[in-house]
Amino acid sequence: MHASLSKTVRMGALLVVVFLLAGLVMPKWLLFLSTMALSHGMVSLGIVIQMRSGVVSFGQGFVFAAGGYATALAANHLGITDAILMVLVGGLAATLCALPFAPLLSRYRSIFFAMLTLAISMVLYGILVKTESLGGSDGFNVSKPTLFGQSISSENSNWVLYNLAVVVVGVIATMARIYADSVRGLVSLAIRENELRVEYLGASVSQSIASNYLIAAFMGGVGGALTLMSLGHIEPNFSYWTTSGEFVFVAILAGHHSMLAVFIGSFLVEVVRSFSNLYFPNTWQLAMGLFLLVVIRFLPRGLGSLWMDRRQNKGDKT
């Protein structure tokens, strides 16, 4: 167990270094695209954590928007502009907003869980649209973040925010991998296969699902804060059902086997959407749909199955 933990940490640190070095040669547009992919992938990673226990949140936009709005308000009204503090504010605020709903949602499964989470997200959307003090349907702008007390210049902002996203996402994704391989994480997989047997063994299914929902909420809030800092703007569409649908899209594309696959999937989605918008502005949704259909047809267990299955087969041979 200790060797596995050490290997996971080393692999996480190596990937962070690789992505940081890659940022040195990326053009500005690709830095921005990669930052958005990392921040959105963080939200989808929360869905993957829930998928491991057999439930899927169709309302991840709720915590995405909660983290983004809390971070924006803290920056504009409380003067919290340090990028690292803004990330923590987003994650903690989203977790607190999700806390009252965790016991309720832990009682439901399958489509009922999905629809309840979607309803919560759309209620928040309605509130945000009608609240003029929060900018209504137009939202509002946010002052530029700082880092360790130093202002970030416009020329370097894309590079700095990319590096911040790489480090934050790398740390949280590594912790998610450790959690997935832990006893509690493996219980989630057991719940997916046979919930009744898990209860007979003495584990609490409701508590596990509620915990996963709160973990996903924290990740969603972090993703909302990172997205807010990259865009410099917040609006109710953060909580709209189409936004939540995109996060589910990435989670299905990646599968629940690999944390790295989530961010690869998120990057592919951002690239497909960006170029489809450029060359097929009126039919980019069609391109996205076809892309997902191809993946589901040839990789029904997601992108992560490409190397996870190969690793498992190698382990069986040895």
Describe, in plain words, how this protein is organized in 3D.
The strands form two sheets. This protein has a two-stranded antiparallel ribbon with strand order 1-4. A two-stranded antiparallel ribbon has the order 2-3. It has 318 residues and is mainly α.
Short description:
By secondary structure, the chain is mainly alpha-helical.
Topology record:
Layout: H1 2-23, H2 28-51, H3 61-77, H4 83-98, H5 102-105, H6 110-130, E1 140-141, E2 146-147, E3 150-151, H7 157-181, H8 183-193, H9 195-200, H10 205-231, E4 233-234, H11 241-254, H12 259-279, H13 284-298, H14 305-317
Gross geometry: globular
Spans of at least 5 consecutive residues with low confidence: none
β-strand number: 4
Count every helix, treating DSSP H or I runs of 4 or more residues as helices: 14
What labels would you give this structure?
318 residues; mainly alpha; two-stranded antiparallel sheet; 14 helices; 4 strands; 3% strand
